[in-house]
Amino acid sequence: MTVPTTDAIVDSVRQALAACGVPQSRLQGDFETRTPITGATLFGVAGDDAASVEATIGRAAAAFPTWRDTPAPVRGQLVKRWGELLTEHKADLAAIITAEAGKITSEALGEVQEMIDICDLALGQSRQLFGKTMPSERPGHRLMETWHPLGVVGIISAFNFPAAVWSWNTALALVCGNTVVWKPSEMTALTALAADALLARAVTEVGAPADLHHVVVSDRSGGEVLVEDPRVALLSATGSVRMGREVAPKVAARFGKILLELGGNNAAIVAPSADLDLAVRGIVFAAAGTAGQRCTSMRRVIAHSSVIDELRNRIVAAYGTLAIGSPTAEETLVGPLINKASFDKMQAALRQAEAEGGKVECGGVRVLADEAADAYYVEPAVVTMPSQTEIVKAETFAPILYLIGYDELDEAIGLNNAVPQGLSSAIFTSDQGEAERFLSSAGSDTGIANVNIGTSGAEIGGAFGGEKETGGGRESGSDAWQSYMRPATNTVNYSGELPLAQGVEFV
After folding, report:
1. Catalytic center at which residues (predicted)?
2. What's the CATH code of the domain at 84?
3. Domain residues for 236?
4. In the prediction, which pLDDT does 67 show?
5. Is the pTM of this model over 0.85?
6. pLDDT tens sequence across 51-83
7. How far, in Å, CA of 237 to CA of 234, rounded?
8. 313 and 413: one domain?
């Protein structure tokens, strides 16, 4: 397997950026963008310093009153047009995602489809920003709740989903009447420019306020401005637990709202009655897909002692068939890690696993090193562990799958829950009772819990997010729209009298 030349990647990305409407002038500056396919620099991009980020927040804040007062169904027409443009330029945006994040083409196209799907959901939501009417204890009174926009929504996103997670937040924030300032990962600035350009085109075509959305290209200093600026009513931040620990207290100190999507250490329980063919397919995609660089990637398999040996053999055999190489090649299933730091962390985790009694069954070896000197393609690893040791409880953002045995279901559920993170989990079983126990309040403690599918591949419509060190945030579907609005309780007195609640008399 060979990788394309950097010149070929640059030409492809340049064409895709132009098709999305990114002007050539944006591709000039000191902020370098890189491709993990070859490790080479793609373009220099003009960056934003702290002062320009502050000014951008000011423009978004100034645009908010006009957008707030625009009827929600009219706001929905913006995301409708945005979704149409994303559909039209799906391949262009996916090509940039592949070049910058290293995702195989199928997964990059799937990410853009998530963006299209959230636009569809948000369009419908624009006519369903429901409040409740409650019975009042006082005669001649009506008790109800209403929902109102917040103001400026700040978004900090990660490299592994360089556009989709932003769109989850932005589509809902916009139909809820907010304005948006987005600070993408430094590693995926080109994807951000392209995605933002399509939204800017939609804004122009529907006649929405020009300053209701912005992207800022910056190092962490730009994110710090979003965190600390009191004009940012809600900060939605996706990243590591370490990042969340830094961000959350600062936003709380100014009484801002925060929505966190942090680490995941996701497990699948494989029960004695599991369909192993189904389980292996679900496990391999969840563990090796995106080179293990999803927050929902499977990190642990907790397998019953009666099936663990056969399951291990099947997973190792399946890993041996995975095509590793350039994400632009049709046959590739596993592309590169994002950078050397990720590779180094993977190697350190494997060494620690062995030190803690683990056995590396396969993988962990770097490949294609001669063809891409600063690119890091690696064989996904399977490691048998004697117990759930310290390294197993830590999230390593790389394709390492730890295999642990169990004898009783309660033991397996306990192992599933005995990590600091709480994003996604799964059980493979043909026993309905086991499935129900896993989904019950005494079962998995994760925000996403699945039966007979893997831990990754969440779809628009269901709320996405997790508990514990994952941060407690919810994005995408269900009632996630409420994060972008503030509720107000209203009492209307039409009785002509003034009775007090709880029978209080004050004459």
Report:
1. 261
2. 3.40.605.10
3. 6-131+140-261+477-488
4. 98
5. yes
6. 999 999 999 999 999 999 999 999 999 999 999
7. 10
8. yes
